[in-house]
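Before a colleague's protein record goes any further, I have to sign it off. What it holds is a sequence and that sequence's fold in token form. Would you go through it and say whether the fold makes sense for this chain? The record follows directly below this note.
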Amino acid sequence: MKNLESDAFVFFGATGDLASKQIYPALQAMTRRGHFDMPIIGVARSAESLDELRAHACESLEKHGGVDPRAFATLSARLQYVRGDYSSQETFGRLRKALGRASRPIYYLAIPPSSFATVAEGLASSGCDKDARVVVEKPFGRDLASAQALNRTLRHSFPESAIFRIDHYLGKEPVQNLLYFRFANSFLEPIWNSTYVRSVQITMAEDFGVQGRGLFYEEVGAIRDVVQNHILEIVALLTMEAPIGREPDGLRDEKQRALRAMRPLVPADVVRGQFQGYRNEKGVARNSQVETFAAIRLYIDTWRWAGVPFYIRTGKRMPVTATEILVELKDPPQNVFNTITENQPNYFRFRLGPHVSISLGARVKMPGEAMAGRDVELVVHQVSADAMTPYERLLGDAIRGDATLFVREGGVEAAWSVVEPILANATPVQEYEPNTWGPIEAEQIIAGGGAWHNPKPIAEEALRAAK
């Protein structure tokens, strides 16, 4: 089954929020490009009929990207509907009938994790799991124990090779570009280690708040929401060794090794913050201790990265929305020119969004008799936006059975092991004003390692890249 494409797409939660915002737009885009040609079966409880489900799909597309009349007509003609409760065997009996002659279905569980076990067991008991793949959406648990329990549940019905844990962040073009840039160029390898790298900063900032999702955010917080998954995945891509071979497991093996080498965090390495006004959000406790900001100092215990601090910062209600990586290099071993140590060190800067660029910070001589210089930034690469949405890319990969961009069981558990020691409010939350870079206490994390690098607003970033 490894190299065979799935021949039917089934998604549970066909009337839910995730289906509306991501799955229908992805299916329409794949249909428009000619990348999708199979039956589509939506499973839900709320829609009364297939016509109502089609109307819901059309409405979803109108709100999220627009309707392509020709592509939607094709998608709509392929769409089937199975209505029923996930705990009822009759639902899965109707699903088995709707699958018809399809022998390699793929199931997308666009439902809360609490329903995963019920659906997985229903698929297994009805025989719908034979030669099938299953796609599950993060969060993959809320701590190490729950992640392990979720993995046991999935493995009870599906082999690990058939489980595709989807994290849309790994399907983003800038993240793909980061991986490609590392291993498609030879000039990085000699300096990509503790001999030359002084520190690495990763900032994932958002200028908005919880956007009415206070109840949800009370259950997760910044560390669970983005640090454990998105940011640690970025760290793994930056620090992993080159994969052996081109098979998907080669890349995933190296990512997992990088995750396992990350030293578990301790309270002294973490500052948690909460923006002023968060407790007034609907669904938020008046005495909430949930963090909307986190600053973290991380170390990786490998020969290549021993002693190099990774400074991580993420937060809401910050001055800009941007994700940026700054890899600072050490100073030259000898100060030939007096002014070098007074200026910014050489660096690589990766802007992952919303404006995308790869740049190199260097120092050049200023015109004149004096051997004096100035800092410049050389733009290596600049693109505007994704040509393909993350969900379109990842759904296509899952249908083809390509697991390269999906998270493996061991990787999930290794990432949880890194943050596990600081999950239970191990440090107090420090209040910070909106439109700032977090609480002043975050400076303690980077003390002795320079200062935080603050990403520029979009307009300034575009201007800098254009120079």
About this structure: The two ends are 50 Å apart (CA to CA). The chain has 13 helices and 15 strands. The first helix runs from residue 17 to 32. The mean pLDDT is 90.
